[in-house]
Amino acid sequence: MKLWGGAFEEDTNKEVEKFSASMKSDIRLWDVDIKGSIAHARMLGEVGVITKDEAVIIVTGLNAVYEDIKTGRTLLNLEAEDIHSEIETNLTQKIGDVAGKLHTARSRNDQVATDTRLYLRDQVTQLSEELKALQKYFLTTAEKNLETILPGFTHMQHAQPVSLAHHLMAYYWMFQRDHERLTQSYQRINTLPLGSAALAGTGFPIDRQMVAKALNFEKVTENSLDAVSDRDFVIEFLTNGSLIMMHLSRLCEELIIWSTPEFGFVQMGDSVTTGSSIMPQKKNPDVAELIRAKVGRLYGSLMGALTLLKALPLSYNRDLQEDKHYLFEGLDTVRASTRLALIMLENTHWKIENMKKSLRGDLSNATDLADDLVKKGLPFRQAHEITGKIVNHCLKNKVILEEMTLNDLKVFSPLFDEQSLKVLPHLSVMKARACEGGTAPDAVKVQIKKAIDGSF
Ligand code: ARG
Hints:
Elements: H1 14-20, H2 23-26, H3 30-47, H4 52-71, H5 83-95, H6 108-143, E1 149-154, E2 157-163, H7 164-189, E3 191-192, H8 208-214, E4 219-220, H9 224-229, H10 232-258, E5 266-268, H11 286-309, H12 323-346, E6 348-350, H13 352-357, H14 366-375, H15 380-397, H16 406-410, H17 418-422, H18 426-432, H19 441-453
The structure holds arginine.
Arginine binds near residues 26, 316, 318 and 321.
């Protein structure tokens, strides 16, 4: 059923009909569309734009349509123009002509903006929960690995040893910022455009606050032109989703590298790896690779949505229909990737012996030897120079720095003493970094506590 046939003398070209339909993407708005309509109909009845009896008939009809779809008694017509006309068609079949009163003081322009916000609001809540579950993994795994050491890297070279707890907590904080961004964006999503009608508002004495309250919107939009053409909240979501994906891709990249035999820091379980059709020995980290790859979907959707809105004149234009394509693509991808990252991690074994082994003789304790000389009064520049010479000696003669004796060290500086030997073990190096935000177990315990209390 077309909602707008009156002024038309010719039938719509079939290709045009297909080209302009959005049902295949907006079908997922079916339930929020009905919820929005119920609130609208109730309000129309309350303010007397329609009679109370009519409102009851419409609301009862909408509830019945809802049940029919939910239970599968009604299958929505995928060839329909969009979800709004399809729901109205179903309502008309149920209650007859009075269904036509539902669209009083409303347009699909404010309706679709409302539906999208209702839908996204719920999705953001679910994504926030999924992020929280992922964060919890980092938190609990960190708690168990305060003294597990591995190389910390800069430029992909061994830099200084860190604890696995510290490394995992770095991801915790990335996802914490993502979580905060989602929470902050929620307020902007949670604004009701309904009542803006096509673009200019309506002359009917509607009560927008009543609808906002019924649908749990925090406030109503201030300007009808803005309300029907604003998709900032979609772009904001895709931005936030892009950041989440970017963080996930960094994690996945590390896991892929760490699962190589050259590193051997992790082993992913059989349930989250896949085999090769030709090489029987292969257990590939495909989930991590796919998450890394799917970042492109978010960036692509974000660019698509930004381009869609660029130079778009006020107010509603059909261009805006494309927003859902980008939004849903982005949403599905970021939610699935977040869930899969957790499943992958839960089935990943941290090979802490290999982490430790990789530190032997890696010279990532050299800074601490220089610091030791500084503590004995030498300016850092000179300390750096002397330690550099020791490093060179180790490299040239295949000497393990942490296995050097005091006499070996004294060749380079008379300032070295028993204490100098104590700073050399990698565990000591890691434990020495006890400043706020450092990798020492006590400092990491503080971050973990702050993370748990939310007191940062
Ligand atoms: N399917 C449309 C969309 O997603 C609904 C609004 C249609 N409004 C219109 N004036 N044609 O944007």
